[in-house]
Write a structure and sequence with these properties.
Largest sheet: 3 strands, mixed
Number of helices: 2
Distance between the termini: 23 Å
Number of strands: 3
Shape: flat
Radius of gyration: 15 Å
């Protein structure tokens, strides 16, 4: 979701966590393309901080732990 919000010419900062399965290169590339577009188009008035979490189905406990760790890091910032 992209919000077009302009606050005195300052970009609205959005924080996103992208959770992806290991080897899902199509989704990873799509997010990279979207991030590049946002960065190149400052007129959108959006600044995005993106964190990526990657895991696999065979080790779901470790995958969930990495997600929780990332969320905890974000909350502590």
């Amino acid at each position: 979701m992209i919000n077009r919000v302009f606050l005195n010419d300052f970009a609205q900062e959005q924080h996103f966590v992208f959770v992806n399965e290991e080897g899902n290169e199509v989704a990873d590339r799509a997010v990279d393309v979207a991030m590049t577009y946002i960065k190149k188009n400052s007129k959108l008035g959006v600044s995005v901080e993106l964190r990526k979490v990657v895991g696999n189905r065979t080790d779901s406990n470790t995958f969930l732990e990495s997600q929780f760790l990332n969320f905890q890091l974000i909350l502590n910032e």
